[in-house]
Design a protein that fits this description.
The protein has 172 residues and is α+β, with helices and mostly antiparallel strands. It has one domain: NADH Oxidase (3-Layer(aba) Sandwich). The radius of gyration is 17 Å and the shape is globular.
């Protein structure tokens, strides 16, 4: 599958087959993800890979009871490592770390889709609760919760706003 097909074919998957996702495949996905751009090549992102059912259930609860998170074979939480970026960029480093984690999460979604896996970007969650559940260090912020598994659904294509309504030339 080429890149354009992968971008156009990816969907948010909320139902997964009960098949496990091999750790080697997840490592491969994260190695691909690590090729994502990052500010100053600081790579100010970390990935918490969760297989434990109890932890997935706590994450689902922290994500406003989005139960499909707990039902996925695996969950990857993308985190911004503020300290890694701020060491070079000071206070602006927080923004750059958030961007690094976000770019990585988007890359992960496309790469997962090309390998026959499904994901769903979950951004609605209690930051503090997720940080506590995962024992994140003080300067590490959860950015996205990403359930991962083999899709057990094929969601429809939803309409998009015409790009001509979103594009502004030279000024707003």
């Amino acid at each position: 599958m080429d890149c354009i097909d992968a971008i156009q074919g990816r969907r948010s998957i909320r139902r997964y087959k009960s098949l496990p996702v091999e750790r080697k495949l997840i490592e491969k996905l994260l190695q691909i993800t690590q090729m994502s751009p990052s500010a100053g090549n600081r790579q100010a992102r970390d990935f918490v890979v969760v297989f434990d059912t109890a932890v997935k259930e706590k994450l689902a609860e922290a994500a406003l009871s989005q139960e499909f998170i707990a039902e996925a074979p695996c969950v990857v939480v993308f985190c911004a490592n503020i300290e890694r970026s701020s060491a070079r960029y000071g206070t602006r480093g927080e923004l750059y770390a958030l961007q690094d984690a976000t770019i990585a999460a988007a890359t992960f979604q496309i790469a997962a889709h090309t390998l026959g896996l499904g994901t769903c970007w979950v951004g609605a969650f209690d930051d503090e609760a997720v940080s506590d559940i995962l024992h994140l260090p003080e300067k590490v912020i959860p950015v996205a919760i990403m359930p991962l598994g083999y899709p057990d659904e094929k969601p429809p294509v939803y309409g998009r706003i015409d790009v001509k309504k979103l594009m502004h030339l030279d000024t707003w």
